[in-house]
Design a protein that fits this description.
Length: 224
């Protein structure tokens, strides 16, 4: 199955480099490029990519606003791609907010080419967060200034079973399904079922939002 990718970045050389790298993969098809968020949203609505590589900082419309528009489309728009944020900083307020909005993860622009290719495939599959160790540190830094365990998020945890809560905790710590399965001595398919139920019960889009939720609800604390 071919993954359709749209690249949104205000630097022409970055777009060209990413496009050449990804187009060389037999399972990836670059369906378009855009120089800013507004045109990225417009092009996404026309080309229906599976994954949008979205730069964080751009003129006209930044990547955060563009991600919000793609992930919460207006009535009548049914296509919702997965969004992978691109940034030059591993600690960036925009990236945190993009994850809260539903972005599937983020990648540093200076990451090795193999990481970009793997990132697109991982995000397209919806199976795991990209660069979980960096993502956890990012979220933890912001969670330090946001008191957890209060209000809606903490109350929603009560709807999970004990096992589902345990699985969510390990997802938030960056463990893959296979690692969680090994921890609990379960079949990997059983873990996938638990993760799916957690996302459904909490009304979350994917594992990225699950990590954010775990920190904001107080289930996982910075430094755990």
């Amino acid at each position: 199955m071919t993954t359709r990718v749209l690249i949104v970045d205000d630097q022409a050389m970055v777009r060209a480099g990413f496009a050449a790298l990804l187009a060389a993969q037999s399972d990836i098809d670059v369906v378009g490029e855009a120089p800013d968020g507004a045109r990225g949203v417009e092009l996404s609505r026309r080309t229906h990519p599976d994954v949008v590589l979205m730069d964080v900082r751009m003129p006209e419309m930044d990547g955060l606003e563009a991600a919000r528009r793609l992930l919460t489309p207006p009535a009548g728009v049914t296509h919702v791609p997965r969004v992978l944020m691109l940034t030059t900083f591993d600690i960036d307020d925009y990236v945190y907010e993009a994850l809260r909005a539903g972005a599937s993860g983020f990648l540093l622009k200076d990451a090795p080419p193999a990481d970009l290719i793997a990132a697109v495939r991982v995000v397209a599959s919806g199976d795991a967060l990209l660069a979980p160790s960096v993502t956890r540190r990012l979220i933890a830094d912001f969670a330090k200034s946001r008191p957890g365990g209060r209000g809606g998020p903490a109350q929603r945890l009560k709807g999970l079973t004990q096992r589902e809560t345990e699985v969510l905790t390990l997802v938030a710590r960056g463990l893959s399904n296979s690692e969680i399965a090994e921890t609990f001595v379960l079949a990997e398919q059983t873990v996938k079922t638990h993760v799916s139920r957690v996302l459904t019960k909490l009304g979350l889009r994917d594992r990225a939002q699950a990590v954010v939720f775990a920190y904001e609800s107080g289930l996982v604390a910075p430094g755990d």
